[in-house]
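Notes from the 1:1 (GR / supervisor)

We went over the backlog. Supervisor wanted to see one worked example end to end before approving the batch request, so GR pasted a single chain during the call. The sequence is below; no edits were made to it. Supervisor asked that the structure be written out right there so they could see what the output format looks like.
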Amino acid sequence: MAISDYSTALVTGASSGIGQACVRQLRERGLRVLAAARRRQRLDDLAAETGCEPLPLDLTDTEAVYAALAGHEIDVLVNNAGLGRGHGGFFQSSATDIDDMIKLNVSAAFHVTRAVVEGMIARRRGHIVQLGSIAGLYPIGFSVYGGTKGAVHLFSQHFRIELAGSGVRHTEICPGRVDTEFFDTAFTDDAEREAFRAGLELLRPEDVADAITFAIDAPARVNVSTIELTPTEQAPGGVVIQRTGEA
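Structure output shown during the call:
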């Protein structure tokens, strides 16, 4: 099914960055879009601009998620909401940082998916897009964040098998560095934040939204399972060799 065959989309993390770009693109393609995030004013501004429907929601509140989504016939889910902290290393990650990332990046993503997928299966149509990360595909040193995105990656691989024959498609999008507000919460130190942005031209939110739209708009016979996209100057992977005791 192409985008024109769908009616309603749900985009999480819609108040900024990739989520906001997805709302704009899906509205331009004629879909009714429920825009979910915690920041109500941001959603209201986006609604005034695009005609989307604001859905103020704390995705870590599981009961609220199921209550808010009950009764909605969602054809397209863009599970974009996520949080990155603890880039100083696992030992420097606070207990709160660990819990917050697991709650939003993993638990919330699973529950939002579960809240909408049964209706998709009953209607025998739908498309679920999970926002993963290259940190979930390659060991790049962000243990907690990478671990949560690794969970999303393996969930996507396994869930794709469960969905076979249902008419529901599933795509995982794995971006590298994107110029969004993600860095504002990921780093508390201004110098570290700017160093992470420096040295390459970052992806823009619209680049990732383009990839998502491409996957959704593919013919019904095509399931785009995984898309990995990075800035041209960024190449993930590699090997680190360091002797014990060396600084």
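Supervisor's comment: The chain has eight helices and seven strands.
Batch request approved.
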